[in-house]
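Journal club prep, notes for RB
We'll compare a predicted complex against what the paper describes. Inputs for the protoporphyrin IX containing FE case:
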Amino acid sequence: MTGGLIAVGMLPAAARLRAALCFGKGTTSMRVTLNYAACHGHQSCAIAAPEVFGADELGNAVVLIDGDLPEALHAKARRAAGNCPEHAIAIEE
Amino acid sequence: MTTLDPQPIDPLTDYDIFDRAFVRDPFPVMEQIRESECPIAHTERWGGSWMPTRYADIVAIAQEFETFTSRQILVTGPPPAQVFEGPYAGVAAPPISSDPPEHHWHRRLILPYFAPQSIAKYESITSDWCNQLIDRFIDQGVADSAADYAQQIPVRVIAHMLGVPTDMSDTFTGWVRGVLEAGLMDQEVRLAARKNILDFFRDQIADRKANPRENDLITNLLAAEVDGEKVPEDYVHGVCNLMLVAGVDTTWSSIGASLWHLAQHPEHRQQLRDDPELWPAAVEELLRAYAPVTMARIVDHDIEFQGCPMKADDRVLMSFSAANRDPRQFENPDVVDFHREHNRHVAFGAGIHRCAGSNLARLELRVALQTWLARIPEFELADPSAVTWAGGQVRGTRQCAVTF
Ligand code: HEM
Ligand code: SF4
């Protein structure tokens, strides 16, 4: 199942939507990925979505939630991605 | 020699970062440059520089560290080769003055001291200091929000963090202003201030070597190793230098400008009272709108950047406040909006030199404003025309009387 979801994440958007529908998940699933190399520790993500992002011992970001985010956090996660000056956060919906 | 320069200056070819009107309100000039055919202005003044004004260009320059180097990061001054002559020639300001590959370890060693979980412990002492400062003037109904409050806070926090006497705060402030304010227009002033700072930290380092302390930043850095070798003492000396210079004027300017804003916007004070959860976003928005810092880069090799013929050793200014007011990146950029959904502001820079102290700066800004608003919920500018600003490298209020 997990393998299936990762593969879904790598498909182009249209295919992903179709795949998501096939899995019966509708459009409510969301996960975040962090490009650690691009992250320079602004922490804007943790300010916008402290439930989703934290900091490692250098102050760079870590994703606190593995896998699908609860729906209640979707708006905050989107905001986090939109606040990162380094464009280091990707959202897959 | 008696003429007063009657010509209005053309900002596109002759901007003056110390022009009084520009320091007071740089945004109309930045907008004029940004919306012109050539959004990267040039001047011969103050040693010459280029000034990009669009978000995308400024971020690109910050990211391209191989072309735009940190050999010199002050906005005026002598060419890079002359910078570290004189006493303490080997002492720079790592990591801000470092380029890769050294920059990596220069930054890596200090980052753990600034991670969110490491700086949380400074919150209560910061709020204690804020309260003590307010105690001094709250009964008078009037105070200088810049000189009597904003200016007093970050210098104490940094002194505390470095384990040096917090009651020397006025002396430290004078030195820092010598480097970042008066010294930008007068190299002798800058070098004298630099010497004072480095003399002071030379003695502090000698003291830590003789009497190592527990949980002490200077002691720990002196013991730090990279690839099995102790780090050079010049590195530790330089880090102390930078922490004082980078941590004081910047944060104080940001607190000062934010209070200047709040004094004029009762509706924003009300929003913060009604919804305390707004605080983190409000701090980010105030940082965006009043980003205090402009950094410089030195061009490594001749290059054409966005149509501008830049030569090796040219200076390029990165005005993060110009970037943060670019309408291509921010809707209604001149409006302060605590509910702004997307705020990729670059008040702390971008890329590998992104401010190491940003979590501490945010904490200080939030605590200083929260403490002020809790005790002085209603206040206004005593006389808007009497407010003074410093500019150039760091822009913020220097005298800003408010009544309450
Ligand atoms: C509101 C307050 C502050 C602002 C706006 C600010 C802004 C900046 C900016 C724009 C840079 C990037 C420099 C560059 O690109 O060349 C920077 C770097 C730096 N800042 Fe801050 N700063 C603030 C407070 C602080 C504080 C409190 C400290 C703590 C000591 C600090 C320490 C540093 C350090 C160490 C660097 C160098 C990082 C590197 O080069 O890797 N700053 N700051
Ligand atoms: S906002 Fe972006 S760069 Fe900053 S810590 Fe988060 S992911 Fe990293």
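Talking point for the session: The mean pLDDT of chain B is 94.
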